[in-house]
Write a structure and sequence with these properties.
Largest sheet: none
Distance between the termini: 68 Å
Helix content: over 70%
Number of helices: 20
């Protein structure tokens, strides 16, 4: 086994079920004895590919199974009954779903799993895979309904991965009481305690129970779960209490734990700016920009980083640097309205009214219902020279 590779119970279950499907179903459904010498090794090959998370190997195993069945069908022609045809079709859809799932294409995987069930393959694990896809696609209520059914009606309810995903889908779908109870129950069973504490911390913070949120995040950090993010959230909690010194300590700790956590650069830069420490804020934000240039990054977070940097430049009076920072933020994430606001007000402050009008109209083109831009634009257009070129 590869060093450092963590294999979850859910992944093991998926590997075992896939191996059994590949090894047993073709010879049983087709009644071709030769396949007993071919499909079991291919089943083991598919299981190894799943455990190693090697999509290419899994696709090779799938192709080999199809070739083996096709060749066996040619060498041993037989007429399938309608029932056998349905079962074979269902198996094919399930294997197709597994391939899409491991590739991260959850929409296509969900479609394949659904077709597999329609064709008659009504195994609880297919339902679990569908629910897992729903979670990834943001359809939490659909996921919650399936996981709740699995928790009640099958032996899968005792599996760690089913219990954890049931708890998460409950919280995400608004079934807060069920989700909270499920995570506490998971803690009693010692199921991924770091993850459970982290999710409970997120939940309590959203419920504005900062004391419990702090306790949960501290526990998660102590158990080494996503430490940088835990420190970042603890910093936000301290900042909400106006304990700025402690917040700064947490943010710096988060960056030591993961220098590539760009969201922390945004938070720390913003905090230092509000404290009037412009030089420190600029240093933190510029470091975030430097890192963002060579790692995959969320465009919204990067836009926020540049927006905050534009604020610092504007406060320093560096108009030639502030304007490009705001413009780049708009280019990266046109839906982030703050950058339009800040650039427009910077233009207004420097009597560049027509430029401000252009920016505000661009904002309203992206989001026609954005009231701050509409209000500022209406005020500007009431000034005769605002609409004239400068």
């Amino acid at each position: 086994m590869m060093k450092g590779l963590r294999i979850s119970a859910g992944l093991i279950a998926a590997a075992v079920l896939s191996a059994a499907t590949v090894a047993l179903l073709p010879p049983l459904l087709l009644g071709i004895g030769t396949l007993w010498f071919i499909t079991p090794p291919l089943g083991l090959f598919a299981a190894a590919a799943i455990l190693l998370r090697k999509n290419a190997l899994l696709m090779v195993a799938t192709i080999l199974v199809v070739l083996a069945v096709s060749i066996a069908g040619v060498l041993h022609p037989m007429r399938l009954s309608p029932s056998q045809e349905r079962k074979l079709t269902a198996t094919g859809y399930f294997l197709k779903g597994q391939t899409f799932f491991l590739r991260g294409d959850y929409s296509q995987a969900l479609t394949s799993y659904t077709e597999s069930e329609k064709a008659g393959f009504r195994h609880p694990w297919v339902a679990f895979q569908r629910a897992y896809c729903y979670n990834f696609l943001g359809r939490s209520q659909n996921a919650y309904e399936i996981f709740a059914r699995l928790m009640r009606d099958t032996l899968l309810g005792s599996l760690e991965t089913v219990h954890i995903n049931y708890a998460l889908s409950a919280l995400k779908s608004g079934n807060y009481k069920q989700g909270e109870q499920a995570f506490w129950q998971a803690l009693n069973y010692n199921l991924q305690p770091g993850y459970c504490y982290y999710q409970l911390g997120i939940y309590y913070r959203l419920r504005n129970d900062q004391t419990k949120a702090e306790e949960m995040m501290t526990n998660a950090h102590r158990l080494a779960y996503n430490r940088s993010q835990c420190s970042s959230i603890l910093g936000s909690i301290a900042e909400s209490r106006r304990d700025y010194a402690r917040a700064e300590e947490f943010y710096h700790r988060a960056l030591r734990e993961n220098p590539e956590n760009i969201a922390v650069h945004v938070k720390l830069g913003s905090l230092l700016f509000r404290l009037g420490r412009l030089s420190d804020a600029k240093q933190v934000l510029l470091e975030g920009v430097r890192i963002s240039e060579w790692i995959p990054i969320n465009f919204r977070v990067y836009a926020m980083l540049l927006n905050n940097l534009g604020f610092v430049y504007a406060e320093e009076g560096q108009l030639a640097k502030a304007i490009p920072a705001f413009k780049q933020a708009i280019h990266l994430d046109p839906a982030f309205m703050d950058s339009y606001d800040n650039l427009a007000h910077l233009y207004i402050k420097n009597n560049r009214f027509s430029d401000a009008v252009v920016v505000l109209r661009a904002a309203l083109k992206v989001n026609p219902g954005y009231r701050p831009a509409r209000r500022t634009l209406d005020q500007l257009l009431a000034v005769p020279e605002a609409g004239q070129p400068q």
